[in-house]
Amino acid sequence: MAPLPFQFLCALGQDGILCASRGDSLYTFSPDCSLIAEHPLGGRPAATEGAKEEEEEGERKQAPQNGSSEATSQTQEAEVNESATPPAKRRKVGSEAAVSSAQPAVGNDQQANNGGQKKKKGEKPADAAEKLYVILLKATSSGSHVVAVTGGNKTIFVLEHDGKGHLTELSQRQMVKRPSGIALTADDEKTILVADKFGDVYALPLIPSADDALDEGAAAGLQESIRLARKGANNLTVHTQRNLKALEEQARQRAAKQKQKEEQKEAGPTFKQDLLLGHVSMLTCVAVASADGRPYILTGDRDEHIRVSRGIPQAHVIENFCLGHTSFISSICLPQPDVLVSGGGDSELYVWDWKAGVLKSKVGLLQHANNEANVDGDKIAVTGLYPCNVPGGAGLLVAVCERVKAVFVFKMQEGNLTFAETINVAGYPLDVAFVQVPGQPSRMVVSLDQQDVEGPCPSSGLYVHLLGNEGQQQPPTYPNPEGGRIDLPRSEVEKILYTVGNLRKTEFDDVTAGGDQAAAGDAGAGAPGAADALSGAP
Amino acid sequence: MPGAPNKKQKRADYRLARSQQDGATEMPKKKFYRQRAHANPFSDHQLEYPISPDHMDWAPFFPAYRTDPEELPEAAASNNDDRIAQRQPKRLRQDVEILDIGCGFGGLLVALAPKLPDKLVLGMEIRTQVTEFVQERIRSLRAQHRDSNEFQNVGCLRANTMKFLPNFFRKGQLSKIFICFPDPHFKARKHKARIVSTTLNSEYAFVLRPGGIVYTITDVEDLHNWMVHHLELHPSFERVSEAEQESDECVKIMTTETEEGKKVERNKGQKFVALFRRLEDPPW
């Protein structure tokens, strides 16, 4: 068993306060590196969301002690719900990932989760912790609010920051699909853009107001599309005897379901969320940009696309695509308003004029990993790109790769990105934050996974590098607070910390896909000149 | 789905025989190219697709439209490894303008090509075997009509359009998109796999020029309602009026010439047609 390290970091405002996530808790640190407070997510009464969810939250925690009779009744309930709510994805009930289903219902879904969870908890208590894991963390630029997303239960938490390191939970909103990227819009950061693994981007108000609660009209719109889906084939579209029989059976089931549905209230999302755009591919990152006073939304996906869409309210208009990556994209950022830098499974970082969709340059990353960070092999996966926005580090861009014990620093000058230096660190870097401290040099804080370091690891794993310091001053150290630590088998920890490398496509996926395909070699027949184009030959 | 043990062998033999007779005028037989009618659009198939539209080499699909090599002084220059800002030379005299998404066995393509002789028509199909059939079919047709030079303007390639449409076509390149008898994906869980959805319509709007038309036809009423609902809901599209729809020649071809259309006819099923026009983007 191994405790979890600090994973995600963000600076809160300009007063030197750092927020770090570990497991399901957020920790805030003061400018002099002392712990201010620990904030367990979902562990206290939420201010705006109903008490119902809270109740169930508590219930879930008690779950292992409860009798099995309740467990079975809830499981049944969960099954009923599953049949009533359409976009539920069936998951393999393997030894891991025990979430029974993903549903838009908040109340009902909690129960559904409970059902699945309980089955698991009997066998392997450690897995359950995955339910409340911070997978994304973002603060508004003023530091007034923090947005945290937890994996497993796919919940977006918004917390208010009082400016002194104390956080108050404002809302919990459970998404249908697991968020994979979040961004805050430029208009005073009033809207959260949530990109999910299903490829869609939703807009959620940062602070849900009372009138945002989904009213009947909006719900009807949703129902409409569900209703359209209700009926399936008819006896004019199927022709074989067996299909006709199946059709009758379906009609019977539908009637039964209809009855059931009338009995219980139709479950739908209980908060406002607008679908802005979507890829038919897993989204990995989302960013906002602006040009000529107009907002834009940039989205990167696993299939090598970076899409440039207009901002709200015209997010349905695609302006262009930035195409050029040959492997997945995992991170995008805008070190300058007109320059986009993207990274992922390719050995280089790509620099784009995003407005025109033109690739301006590529800057090597793998070569530095090979030469300066003792990385063998020819593949790296960028976990994060962090443009520096604090004094002392203007124009810097930091890149972090999965399982590479180094931080790569680049310099951005007049739209050109050049490599500056490699900073070797004592563990695998997980996240980077730049903290501006009044009266002191700015800090670059890197959270490290030091699990492979021999012996026990007493330090917090928060590495500090002072910017513009020229080695004059000893960097301060952050403490390693006790409590709130979740112990998991190392293999589980790795699954939580290292997800980017799994985005890479495997070479022989097609063998099982596509039904009775005769031979994979067929794909070569009349294929477009992709291989040709790769080498640049005419 | 394990087929007959010698099915694979028979197919291989058939293909070998076909490849040996050069300039075959005999049409390919469908029975050697059948494939399960459903493909998972979310799977990472072993697809080949260009990095971007500028990297696409169309010449193998439309050899008659190939530009002469001497018209390409840049060809050698682009040979260096550094592709940055190096626009690949255009290899065709004109661009593909008409797209049939999920062209199946190519009935529509083959019927459209002679009616629109000055346009390039392309079919995209996700199933390898079926794509191959259409390519063979086009090859035979070209060989049969060598004198009249017909069917030179039609091509087919394997692609997952739901994922990779923008890799093949530039903004506003297409004037017509056909979506004929798509997989209905009845289960609610599978609705994201439908070829028409609110979010995917944005991509169709991207590759379609203003005034361009999306043609949809299906025999499943619910899917028809779904497609109409989602395309009408999308601000970039408006439905084309009944009268205009009736007068469009392509609608007739789409209704009668597609393989599925013929099958529905045989089974006396219904057909639902809807056309949508791409509107100009609002000012931004």
Describe the structure.
The complex is a heterodimer of chains A (538) and B (284). Chain A is of the alpha+beta class. Helices cover 20% and strands 34% of the residues of chain A. In chain A, the strands form eight sheets. A four-stranded antiparallel sheet of chain A has the order 2-3-4-5, with no helix packed on it. In chain A, strands 6-7-8-9 form a four-stranded antiparallel sheet, with no helix packed on it. In chain A, strand 2 and strand 3 form a beta hairpin. In chain A, helix 2 crosses helix 3. Chain A is globular and about 85 Å long. By secondary structure, chain B is of the alpha/beta class. A seven-stranded mixed sheet of chain B has the order 3-2-1-4-5-7-6, with helices on both faces. In chain B, strand 2, helix 3 and strand 3 form a beta-alpha-beta unit. Chain B starts with 6 loop residues before the first helix and ends in a 6-residue tail after the last strand. Chains A and B meet through helix 4, strand 13, strand 16, strand 17 and strand 21 of A and helix 1, helix 3, strand 3, helix 4 and helix 5 of B.
What keyword list fits this structure?
heterodimer, A: about 550 residues, alpha+beta, four-stranded antiparallel beta sheet, B: alpha/beta, 9 helices, WD40_rpt (chain A), nucleus (chain A)
Number of helices of chain B: 9
* Strand arrangement in the largest pleated sheet of chain A: 2-3-4-5
Number of strands of chain B: 7
Mean pLDDT across the residues of chain B is 86
Question: What proportion strand of chain B?
Answer: 15-25%
Strand content of chain A: 25-35%
Structural class of chain A: alpha+beta
Large-scale geometry of chain A: globular
Mean pLDDT of chain A: 74
Question: Numbering strands along the chain, what is their spatial order in the largest sheet of chain B?
Answer: 3-2-1-4-5-7-6
- From N to C, what is the helix and strand string of chain B? HEHEHEHEHEHEHHHE
Number of helices of chain A: 8
Task: Report the strand count of chain A.
Answer: 29
Oligomerization state: heterodimer
Radius of gyration of chain A: 25 Å
- Rg of chain B is 20 Å
Low-confidence stretches of chain A: 44-130, 215-229, 509-538
The helix content of chain A, as a percent range, equals: 10-25%
Q: What are the low-pLDDT stretches of chain B, counting only 5+ consecutive residues below 50?
A: 72-86
Shape of chain B: globular
Instruction: Kindly name the structural category of chain B.
Output: alpha/beta
